[in-house]
Structures
1.
Amino acid sequence: MLNCNAEFTIHFSIQHSAFSIANAVIELTPPRPSYRPRTGYLFLAVMVGHLILISAQVQSKAGVPVLEALTFGVFSRVQLGASGFFRGIGGTWGNYVALRGVRSENETLRQQVSDLQVRLQEQRALAVRANQLQSLLNLKETTTLPTLAAEVIGGNPNSGLLTVTIDRGSADGVQPDMAVIAPQGVVGRIIGPVASRASRVQLIIDRNAAVGAIVERSRAGGMVIGVEGDPPLRMDLASNLADVVAGDVVVASGVDGIFPKGFVIGTVERSERGKNLYRDITVRPAVNFSGLEEVLIVLSPARSAQPEEASKPREGAK
Amino acid sequence: MKAAGVMLALAGALALQTTLAGLTIGSTTVINLVLVAVIYAALAFGPVAGLLAGSAGGLVQDALAGGIIGVGGFSKTLVGFVVGVLGAQFIVAHALPRILMFFAGTIIHELCYQALYALVESKAFRVAWSPTLMQAAINSVIGVLVFMIIESAPGVAQRRRARSATLGRRY
């Protein structure tokens, strides 16, 4: 029986004790009622406090106090999370809730964009037109020929004939067989009948058109005629001995009495030796006939290709 | 009363420690009276008193020593708590267990103290065992002497008997 009056100790013999070493010097006693779990919490709190205190004084490798670096590192994650949270809320609000009036606004903006696109097209067309007129004006100033500006007002509904209608006619001094040119080169000639305020122009790419021509580089002569093909011009009557190569510029020779000499007709695209006496030469026209809008009419009356003496009736023939 | 006693013990230990700072052998401090006071408080009043005494005494000692404040406090808090818990689990009324507690507490304190300094100064952890063991031995002797002196004071024996009687009735 244990002696309760003495100090409450349990004597373990060496045979009965599990703590043989401690038994020799320490007497086992029941836990004191004063020790509670809150002591452990207090211990942890004090130790953490000391660690924080130490961290505040210790410099990290970056030269910043460890406490500051640790606090910043931890709080940066908090900030990151908070920032992501609020960004998510803002994104949800901005992308869903705040988009209620966007549909009507979008429709309004679409309408404005359409209007602006139309206006832009108009302005662009005006700019192109201004450039064309400027080119035409420059041509008019540089050429010594009397010319008259005209605007293409229509094409030919008949696909067999390549003609266009211009807004100048006999009232403006326009006569048949007058040459029509553009800043890029020769366009065609006036063909009758000529109305007072309009006239028709036969394009040089028409299969019935022909222009006296020479190669600008080698001065090799020939005649450019319209063909149904690509390119739509062919240069005939150029000798096989003539020096004509691809890339040569073909200009009007003036021998036809209609087209002024030196105006560009086109560029040689292919030049091969022909089976007969003449070379097979195709010419790419300098003028873009599909985009023809303004032209110049050369007001000089066409001169006959034949000498005046030859045209006069011989006296002896009477 | 208990808190006042602990504070008084700490204050006295600090005063003596600073006064007797010249007690060195081979330029190494061979006595740590504050630690002795902490272990005493832990053994006499339990783990709470031990850890609070260790925390306060260590902080003050760190502040007076000029090092990193908190290292000594951390170590002494740990020692005070551990010794207090052990003192609550085992009867350490005799000299031998007290010597063991003072000795082990000093060793734990030095190990923790050196490890913390090695950690914060990014140095290799190396313990100078000779002065550590010397200090542990001296602290143990002083601690036991302190216990003996206090227990031999008038009225202490009677209070102790009364406490033992109370525990005996309880169990």
Note: The mean pLDDT of chain B is 81.
2.
Amino acid sequence: MLEGIIKSYLIDRAGVDPAKFDRPDLHVSDLELDSLGLIEMLFEVEDQFGFQIPEPMRFLTMGFAEMVAAIEATVRDHHDGQLPAINATRASD
Amino acid sequence: MNRVLITGLGMICPLGTDKNSSFASALEARSAIRPAPADIATRLPNVLVAPVAIDPESVLDKKYSGLDRATQFALVAAHEAMTDARITTPPRDATRFGVFVGIGFGGAQTVDGLYSRFFKMLHDPTQAHKNPTVMHPLSVPRMMANAAAATVSMRYGLRGQSSTYSVACASSAVAIGDAFRAIRHGYLDAAVVIGTEAMLTPGSLMAWNALRVMAKPDPTDPAQSCRPFAHDRSGFVLGEGAAALVMESQARATSRGPTVFAEMGGYGCSSDAEHLTAPSVDGQVAAMRQALYEANLAPEQVQYLNAHGTATDAGDVTETQSIRTVFGRSADKLAVSSTKAIHGHLIGAGGALEFALSIMAMNSGSLPPTAHLQKADPRCDLDFVPLHARHGCSIEAVMSNSFAFGGSNASLLARRYTP
């Protein structure tokens, strides 16, 4: 679920080549995001779950799968270990 | 000093999605003024607006989605002007090519959206688990007043001066004037100048409504509610959009051979130093006289003037007196019109839009009328080209006035180009 949100932002908005996601060893640095692109990507998750993800720059040195897992862990930390269902009604873009 | 030529024009405004459709609507006096949409009309039923007919995102690359609406308008208008002038991206002389933007209330749509999001989330029980302060991380670079200048500079690789002017209703007139000076005096060889504004938002319309300067809706036809110089005028209508001009030195233009729309003649600017909102004859006269002096033109050598003409009681009377003072005996031979009757008041974009329309009037010999002017206020006694366009005119020079809240006045003068 989280991976879907992140991937759709990266492909549809940031222009990342979808073929890159076929690579199991995909690294965050391979996405060629600058610091603004990275926090814009995180906002897609923040907007869904309603809190600001701390220390965004730590993700830049991770593998893609590792980053998704770390973001999920952060979301669970914020929701008593749960991963809440995504609310269909988002506040805005 | 360099002669400065205008080699590109672009528009996205309530009258049309490009310069030709906009100018055609101006000649036909086709009004874009209408009641505000439901989210505003619910609480402000008398507020009118002049919106741009298309969503700018629909004509822009997806990477520009989410930018402030004023930046999007600027990109659309700049594209038309840069294409017109056949500017390559990046230009070979990129460090000598500047960007000048005029905007009255930069970031208005983004700021309004931020508060709407906050309060909507705060009061929505289904969103109670969310922190309402979580905002889009690019909110700041989207709302900053120089967002449009930055985006246009990046899009075209323009590395010269990029400056943003916020001078209320005179913003883009001052931007054009200062770009003219920069090229005239050799600081730059070319510039794209843009006036843009997008604040038809609930927050800003509440503020404008409170100022008591907005036109009352015409009971039979809301489109005719803004009537500059008319005896029954009641104020202006807020519009939105952008206009852009490419300006370059004669030497640069001559080496490439683009179409030349006009030569910049002169620019005048002054401050009233009197009142926050009330206009002053002395300040307006000073601006117009400076423009004529710089262009080395006598008043009788100007045939058309696009008035600031906001349709407020004081504004139209003061401007009439100012024009009479500057033009003297030739005032009765001068054609004056206010196109705000149909495109509304574009605030920061108004100067660029109206100057560009004036240049198109000069080149076509067709003068846009002052729409809805059935009966003039006796204190406004100039030739306002009432109701219908005037065709077949021989125009050698045109002036455009922009007089701002805060007492800032700007007058621009363009003339037919003869090498």
Note: The CA atoms of residues 54 and 74 of chain A lie 9 Å apart.
3.
Amino acid sequence: MNGGRIIRGHAGIGPSVTGVALVADDYFSARYDLDRSAGVFSRPAHKLYGQSYVGRVLVLRGAKGGVATAWMLRNMVAAGKAPLALLLNIANPIMVQGAAFADLPFMDRFEADITQAIRTGETVTVDPEAGRVTVHAAQ
Amino acid sequence: MRLIELEQEMLEGRHGTPRKWAMQQLMRVGRFFDAEDFVEVSQVHLMADAESLGAAGVEFLERVAKAPPEHRRARVPTVTDPRGIDFEAYRRLGQTEKMAELERRAIAAFRAMDFLLADTCINYQTVMPPVLGEHLAFGDTGSTIYANSVLGARSNFEGGPSALAAALTGRVPRYGYHIPVNRRATRAFIVKVRPRDLSAWGALGGVIGRRVQSYWEVPAILGIEGAPTSDELKHFGAALASFGTVALFHMVGVTPEATDLPAVMDPGGSAPETIAGGDIDAFYRSYGGGGDKLDVVVFAAPQLSLMELRTLAGLLDGVAVHPQTAMLVATSPEVKAAADRLGLTQRIERAGAIVLKGVCFYQMHAREIGEAMGWKRLMSNSAKLVNIIAGYGYAPSLGTMEQCVAAAVAGRVPKGAE
């Protein structure tokens, strides 16, 4: 897992993790977009409609909608139905509060559009404390 | 972050484990946003329905509630957002005992923390309206945007865990809309058509929200002549916050910080965009359903004021909701008591509707209700509700309150309402 492209962002929240990316040019709200018991995107208009986000490094444009996500992320982690990490171009306070409460790895404010810099299926390491995402070369 | 002595003591656990957790939660958020210190708040509005909390959230609250009273009680007045269960109506809606039990446990924990169970998202209309410059920790997007914009108070979106932490400490990190320079408008919209009713005000909020799509953008609205009502601004703000994750708007000549455009506009802000009647019409058309059998009409999101209930009662006098269609109306416990006393509840329920108190439809396990009741096609006059509810397996239609009532009586979504 050495080498690869490095994308820098603002220092984030949560532990360092490595996993497979799921990327879309769309927004994120746990309440508006997800069937949290099935672990899939359930909003028909969402670009990831029908796809499972469980255990993936979820990469989206930004936060959307209401405040419920602040509670929901912790329950999703406890139920084993959470993404492994969440990367957004720009967060709102709700996502940050929810990630802090859930101890879910979370970053934003990257040097490039994160939804263009990472492709679905790539393996990435997210290191929130260092403010660094590493995209590993295909094996 | 710079801490004063009391903050340092709370962080070290000298005021108990809950306040220590609360300081840690707030500092993680504060550091993320480069906050330099904390700001004291005078009121907290806590969103914590059991659907959002889940079992993990309720267990967390119960741990706080078991701490000694001097460690667990709120430091500032804290009112609750709608609950997920109306205990007088939940069985009729196909909600389960398990859902009710989770809600009971959350309520018991909130009582132990000395929270005021107002169970309302319109606390700015019904509990204690904030004032210009007052720092708050408000926890519903609709209550935050209204307090920030219409009243000139100062709050970020404080989601449940952070609002809980604010209640336990009496403060929040100073970032975002607590800082005057961040309150300047970055976008401007010239509105060419005045919305004709509450749903059209919501549609206008939705049109602008879809274009903004960032918490850190502040829209300035121009072209609104004469003051809108509190209910009109409530629907506008709730939709703007829901579609755009926006926490503050300025309406020039209407909201208190926007005496004129230069008073609020950032010199680096973008050129004004125009919103015309066609944009509002297209927004309605984006929700279909004309001619479909109608399963349920919902008036909620935000909860209805006494004035909205009066209008609805007038529309329902002498008519009956179709036997194959349900109608739900959500308001706060205090407004419900007033509506009972004034005979409005009886007039609304005589037509076949159910008036719910202390809840809001999308916060009450709407997916499970839909599955239990066989509901799919939903109609509402709330742009916010139709935005949220598609993710819960419903097919939503948007119409005026009059169109919603006519559709409920006919049992079908009218053609041309979409």
Note: The first helix of chain B runs from residue 5 to 11.
4.
Amino acid sequence: MSMQPKVVFEKVNKVFERRGADLEVLANIDLSVAPGEFVCLLGPSGCGKSTLLNISGGFEQPTSGRVLIDGEPVQGPNPRRVFVFQEYGIFPWASVWDNVALGLRHLSKGEQHTIVAQVIDLVGLTGFESTYPQELSGGMKQRVEVARALAVDPDVIFMDEPFGALDSLTRLSLRSELIRIWRKSGKTILFVTHDVDESIQLAQRIVVFSDRPGSIKEIIPVPLEHPRDLGSPEYGQIKNHLYDLLGVSHKV
Amino acid sequence: MSYWPLFLSLIAIGVVAAARWQSARQQSVLLPLAISCLVVVLWELACRWTQTRVFPTPGQTWLGLLELIESNRLWGDIAASLFRVTWGFILAVAVGIPLGLVVGWSTRTFRALNPIIQGLRPISPIAWIPIAILWFGIGDGAGIFLIFLSSFFPITVGTMAAVRNISLVYQRSALNFGLSGLELFRRVVLPAALPQIITSLRIALGVAWLVIVAAEMVGMDSGLGYLINDARNAGSRYDLVVATMLVIGAIGIVLDLLIRRLERFDEVRWGYAER
């Protein structure tokens, strides 16, 4: 039985106009993501991978080509597909609880309560429900944002360098948290990063982008079981291969 | 001739000199107090050296203040000024914040209305005094109208700017979770703009307090501004003039402190840099 892909990119192109000149950002992106798959979009800064994510989230329109989710072209933002931003998209004026409940406005108080308590527990923030984001560390803010996304039970989660602003230890622990949550919830995740290690630790497939205009250089499967051993030879091979693809030396 | 300026300045200088042994909290109370004492001393000495008969000494000003308090005149004028400022300010808030939110959010409304708002804004509220009297006569109506004008522009323009500065990531979050219409305003636009709106309220109230005094000096028959004019006209009572000025300053500080309390709520604290 062939499963229908969750997200399909068909010949997606994006050209920005900057001061009268055309800037080609994405060139002919073709990609298909299976339901429940964890895919990383990896590439150098400015290669258009975030733009591609914005297009799939419905925040921007492709210049040509289209993005299909469940066979339907993306028309605009939709709570079925939630975005997690690098620069903290949670609202600083609302408590953790109110932030997480944002997408549950149509439910009764009782239903809201059950779901919010459940996802807050899932991301390990029980006890911080009435706290305001200002009093939370960067890592905790991102947990709130992940909880807010999970609360609406979306099909797809788009993550745009969500751990980019965090210190390396927090990043590492949030990655394993994310994997735990992903395995438990079975969501399709598209994760943009420029961090080679991050992509190998998380993804089932890594989509490697070229410099601008971004096009897909290669799609690399990561056939490693979670939890992944960061010291294993397979891990090292994939890493070397990615560094070669990105054109950087792997010796410092 | 008394020697209190000498003693007072010695104490003040002593406090300033000993500042390094005081805690931060003590310093921020004691140092301004000491400097104020030195200013009063300079004021007294200037009066003595110039042998002025018109400008009041600190002592005469103090007696003038007591006279104003005892005569009951002061309370009535304070009430008159505060009444006009309160109502004019409330009306400006009620009109300016909703208008600023809508004009700031909707690009088309912004294009249509912003030039008019920017064109009226530089006209000093003082320049409106003749029109205000023409429309409302001498009295509270004209005062309230002038305070409305002087608060309306800072509040509207501040709210507009606040909305236009809302971070893209909050707007996208709101869109992503399907917020629209009134709910979008209540849950995102208003709270995101609120810290900057409160700052504009603070500016507006400060301007209102400046304008009401000027307006009462020119076109009203009560209030602190009128009291200043009246004290000068009724026998050059400059002691009462300066005493009233000090009262105006003190009330201005209190108003600012009151409105700054709004900055402390959890919902807006994120919008201000830690001090």
Note: Chain B has two domains: 4-51, 69-269.
